[in-house]
Amino acid sequence: MPDSSEALHAIAREMRALVRRRGALSAAAAVLPVPGVDIAVDAATFADMLMRINRAFQLSPEQIEKLHTDERLAVLAALSQVSALFAGRYVTSAAVLTVVKQFGSRWITGKVAKWVPIAGQGAAAALSYWTVVKLGDAHIDECMRVRDRVRALLAAPKTSGRAPGA
Fold this sequence. Notes:
mainly alpha
């Protein structure tokens, strides 16, 4: 597990670069004149990007299952305390689309705007890029908070579970 602040920040920088590349892919798909292709690309892009981020921070469900009991409990507690949306979970296209809908009007506006010649396609590309970057960066921040919380939980002194004086 990444255990130092330096290691976490290095992972975050690497994942932010991935997010920007995926944003560019989404922007490129947004200007394609084929109906529905951009939405399919966005859903697949989001799902894959979020799972890659989870794996980079060692927060994929498979990685969590392989942890020693104390570490697994700390990760599960941290996920709960941080109210993680995607960290530690399987990410599906359907789940991603549900969250993207929460970004709502900007994303939908971009999908509709692409049908306005030239300027609309540019707006659609910019909004697609913005949505991917916002969602990706928010997920990276979430993973950082989970990892910081895990570190704090594992560093906390263990209690014996017995009442004082017993």
